[in-house]
Amino acid sequence: MRTNPVEKIIDTLRGDHPVTDVRICQRSVMVKSKRLGLAYLFPRDASSNEKRNQIRGCGSLTKLGAKELSAYALSDDLTEASVGVAAINSLIDIEEKKVQVRNGKKSLYERCAGKRVAMVGRFKFAEELKKLCAHLDILELHPSPGDLPAGAADDVIPLAEVVIITGTTLINGTFTHIADLTKNAFVSMLGPSSIISPVLFEYGIDEICGSRVIDDEMVIRFVSEGGSFGDLSGVEQIVLSREDNN
After folding, report:
1. Cβ-contact 116, 133 below 8 angstroms
2. pLDDT in tens, 4-38
3. Which of 82, 192, 196, 234 could disulfide-link 215, Cβ–Cβ 3.0 to 4.6 Å?
4. Topology of the domain covering 96-245
5. What is the 3-state secondary structure (H, E, C) of 177-227?
6. pTM of whole model > 0.85?
7. Which CATH architecture has domain 5-91?
């Protein structure tokens, strides 16, 4: 099995920065170091006996450097992994000349038109996209009516011409297996949890569509009050493309 890409990304982090704030909110995690980093927080399954474990070092996380906190991204505990990915996003260097400030969703619509598409994780724009593409399969851990269970990935993804992967696959450990199924497709990673790193190109990702916080106060207030990423203001959409980085 290939090395976890998150482990390789952590190895590329240059320097360090003090962690000044860590917030685990209703739907998201925020870590403030060099900048404000975000990651999705998986909900607890209310139908199971699952309980959230206490985070290692809770109450003292701001005594850590961002690089040390980034190692939490390798944890099997999903909340800790979210904290780690948010820490990576708070520290990672983003080379301005290599990213485009644009909404990757718009160009993705053009790429998906008339194509067979697989979407890993249901995005809000799924129904709109379905009208444009020839066929859309939506894979979900907790499928809604019309979605496919995550276990169908091995059958569905190899057939797709375009694959849209949520950045949360970097948190729950499913990324590497999904990436291995996308050999013949154009692959886009999408969402605020996405790590803007060219390391992901080594795993078959063609473009990474993420976000960068430009108004810390607005984002902290909104997310702390239970807001979701889909309605988030105070960020700009950025795209790192393999094509532009060759």
Report:
1. yes
2. 999 999 999 999 999 999 999 999 999 999 999 99
3. 234
4. Rossmann fold (3.40.50)
5. HHHHCCCCCEEEEECCCCCCCHHHHHHCCCEEEEEEECCHHHHHHHHHCCC
6. yes
7. 2-Layer Sandwich (3.30)
